[in-house]
Amino acid sequence: MNRILLSLAAPPLAVCHYGCARRCAAPIGAFWLTGIVGLVYGGLGGPLNNGSVAWWVVGIGVLLWGVAAIWTLLTVQGVDDDRSRVSGSNRLCQALAGSGSRLDESDPLEEVERSRREE
């Protein structure tokens, strides 16, 4: 329950605490902060600044906050699945080096060097 509440309230903190902070914290934080800015800017009148709330700007802010929260929930759930080795987890489906190809495969740039020698 704490993970869900933290994911909804402060998505970057939830990713740093429960998820993979190295890959997801920055983009999730950008969406979240932009959502907060949208809420504040829309509440102050938005681009028209006519004294009333710009609801379309507030709506964009809520949408961006929602995207950050859903992304966080999916990331935290994926990390939990990887740690508990649930079927379908990425850790169970990793490609092995050399699977589907020869292990003694030569350097792909070797053909370029051969073509230069022939010219």
Cα end-to-end separation:
68 Å
Element pattern in H and E: HHHHH
Q: Considering DSSP H and I runs of 4 or more, what fraction of the residues is helical?
A: 55-70%
The stretches of 5 or more residues where confidence is low (pLDDT under 50) are none
Gyration radius, in Å:
23 Å
Strand count:
0
Percent strand: under 5%
Output mean pLDDT.
81
Number of helices: 5
Structural class: mainly alpha
Largest sheet: none
Question: How would you summarize this macromolecular structure in one to three sentences?
Answer:
The chain is mainly α and 119 residues long.
Please give the structural blueprint:
Layout (H helix, E strand, L loop, with lengths): L1 H8 L1 H8 L2 H23 L11 H30 L25 H9 L1
How would you explain this protein's 3D organization?
The structure is a single chain. Helices cover 66% and strands 0% of the residues. Helix 1 (2-9) packs across helix 2 and helix 2 (11-18) packs parallel to helix 4 (55-84). It is flat and about 75 Å long. With 119 residues, it is mostly helical. It has a domain at 1-76. It has helices spanning 2-9, 11-18, 21-43, 55-84, 110-118. 19% of the residues are buried. Keywords: Membrane, Transmembrane, Transmembrane helix. The chain crosses the membrane at residues 53-76. Residues 98-119 are annotated as: Disordered. This is Transmembrane protein.
Task: List its salient traits.
mainly alpha, 119 residues, single chain
